[in-house]
Amino acid sequence: MRAPDTFQTDRLTLRPVTRADAADVFAYAGEAAPTRFMPFVRQRDPAESLAFCIRCEEARVSGAAFPWALIEQATGAFLGVIELRLSPPKADFGYILKEDAWGRGFASEAASAVVGWAIDQPDIHRVWATCDPDNAASAAVLKKASLSYEATLANWEARPQLGEAAGHSCVYALTKSVA
Ligand SMILES: CC(C)(COP(=O)(O)OP(=O)(O)OC[C@H]1O[C@@H](n2cnc3c(N)ncnc32)[C@H](O)[C@@H]1OP(=O)(O)O)[C@@H](O)C(=O)NCCC(=O)NCCS
After folding, report:
1. Is 135 helix (H, G, I), strand (E, B) or coil?
2. What domains, with CATH codes, occur in the chain?
3. I need a labelling partner for 159 at 20 to 30 A (CA). Which of 14, 44, 122, 129 fits?
């Protein structure tokens, strides 16, 4: 099962992440605010961003994950990345934007497009994501993308920037009606 290579929303184009995006990825993955709640160690070297982008290319080829760059149509600016993982009957996703793109509805717009596509697939019955209980902005994005809070999972994810080896996570989901 594969996801589309591109999405067009009102203001965004979502297109595959490639190794040419490494400098743009480092612009957020090396910064404190965007990586605060993320499970990876904040990047210190642009070579780490290049490795991430190569992994994105490979994941799309294998189908392990579908990472898209968020491109603002009006400016051509690279705003961040959203990634969908398809594992029928479910799919999960995550996202991160550079700080100067926050607060303009871009994450919600991208997440809504990706979630909408995923839940429309006959083989996908659950679309889910998690966030740190203190990540109010991410929780708001998930609700705007039609997911609902389900539970708080104890010791779900490492958050190296917060010094947590196994932090709690809130799980949100959109599910099809039970037959
Ligand atoms: C989480 C993140 C993707 C949100 O991106 P964004 O483009 O600013 O989100 P949106 O503009 O779509 O905002 C969605 C909603 O969140 C709300 N929001 C934003 N910051 C908030 C905050 N600190 N507290 C509460 N709500 C907040 C907005 O008001 C908006 O709701 P509204 O349209 O009703 O006003 C962005 O902050 C980010 O990249 N953070 C770092 C990475 C991260 O945490 N990723 C998620 C990991 S689970």
Report:
1. coil
2. 7-175 (3.40.630.30)
3. 14
Q: How close is the Cα of 104 to the center of ligand 1, in Å? A: 9
Closest ligand 1 atom number to CA of residue 109: 12
CA dihedral sign of residues 52, 31, 41, 44? positive
Measured from the CA of 108, which atom of ligand 1 is nearest?
12
Residue 177 contacts by C-beta under 8 Å, 6 or more apart in sequence?
A: none
Entry pTM: 0.96
Q: Which residue carries 């979630």 as its tokens?
A: 115
126 lines ligand 1 (CB under 6 A): no
Instruction: Locate the ligand 1 atom nearest the alpha carbon of residue 98 and give its number.
Output: 39
Specify the residue with its C-alpha closest to ligand 1, atom 30.
140
Model pLDDT for residues 70-85, shown as the tens digit of each residue:
999 999 999 999 999 9
Find the radius of gyration of the CA atoms of the chain.
16
User: By percentage, how much of the chain surpasses pLDDT 90?
Assistant: 98
Q: Convert the pLDDT of each residue in 105-143 to its tens digit.
A: 999 999 999 999 999 999 999 999 999 999 999 999 999
Does the beta carbon of 167 lie inside 6 Å of ligand 1? Answer: no
